[in-house]
Description:
The protein is mostly helical and 69 residues long. It has four helices and no strands.
Amino acid sequence: xxxxxxxxxxxxxxxxxxxxxxxxxxxxxxxxxxxxxxxxxxxxxxxxxxxxxxxxxxxxxxxxxxxxx
Length: 69
């Protein structure tokens, strides 16, 4: 997937967990990161994928979670 190849391994991991329906806080707890760090990953993912809202990010993650491993 060309779009997904732009993401770092950690961004892909964050996106996969978002696709499971988890919140930023839950992602942070699962990965042992701060909420701020996960927020930064979300921002970078949105920029790289051309997404403009949380709803778009969650919908994309849900549709593409199978592509993330």
